[in-house]
């Protein structure tokens, strides 16, 4: 909004105010609306005077570590944590800004439509974040023998939490309808939401990239969506590379799962395989 559309804090305040009256209604949208309206003593937006280095208490870090331990692609929270880490190296970024060049942001499209696209991108990315979070909880429940009430958890968050959001009731509905649901994106409601938001979501990420504006959460959420809906990913080449350099073996499409193979790719050396990596 600021760097591409050239919007002021007051203008952004009005947008967030409008968004909080719709499907994006949530605690974080609400407080962002309020923050953008606050002025410093000289009448300028206070938010513009705050140092751009984000702190953290470690919640996101241990969530990401848990996801890695359980093999769950919690890409959005992980990227959010790394974005905070990147913000923390302020002096290094200032020095880099004087050396590294990128495109100068320009916008020639329909501003109102782009704001609608931004709303779609934010909504879809939020859905992906919840989908990933629930996937992590399900994996943890399986690993540690927990009996989680997934719908009840959504209602608990509605009672007062930083991630409180109006569509948490839709999450409860989804698990009420299908207690063994594997991913929120597969439910009729959230599938419809994300597919309707897709065009705007892609436009925002593309526009940001072409203008040199980092949008780590939007982009990684979209990459997860595209990866999750892909019947076939290029991990076959990755497995071939792993087998080539470390004899880690691979599975074949034309053989049963759980049966591993090793190829002597160079025709030299022995045929001993290393330990397998079970997905």
Automatic annotation (TrEMBL):
It is an enzyme of class 1 (oxidoreductase). GO terms for molecular function: phosphogluconate dehydrogenase (decarboxylating) activity. SMART domains: 6PGD. Keywords: Gluconate utilization, NADP, Oxidoreductase, Pentose shunt. GO terms for biological process: D-gluconate metabolic process; pentose-phosphate shunt. The keyword Oxidoreductase applies. Residues 1-266 form the 6-phosphogluconate dehydrogenase C-terminal domain. It catalyses: 6-phospho-D-gluconate + NADP(+) = D-ribulose 5-phosphate + CO2 + NADPH. Transmembrane segments: none annotated. Pathway: Carbohydrate degradation; pentose phosphate pathway; D-ribulose 5-phosphate from D-glucose 6-phosphate (oxidative stage): step 3/3. Its EC number is 1.1.1.44. Pfam families: 6PGD. Homodimer. Belongs to the 6-phosphogluconate dehydrogenase family. PANTHER family: 6-PHOSPHOGLUCONATE DEHYDROGENASE. Catalyzes the oxidative decarboxylation of 6-phosphogluconate to ribulose 5-phosphate and CO(2), with concomitant reduction of NADP to NADPH. This is phosphogluconate dehydrogenase (NADP(+)-dependent, decarboxylating).
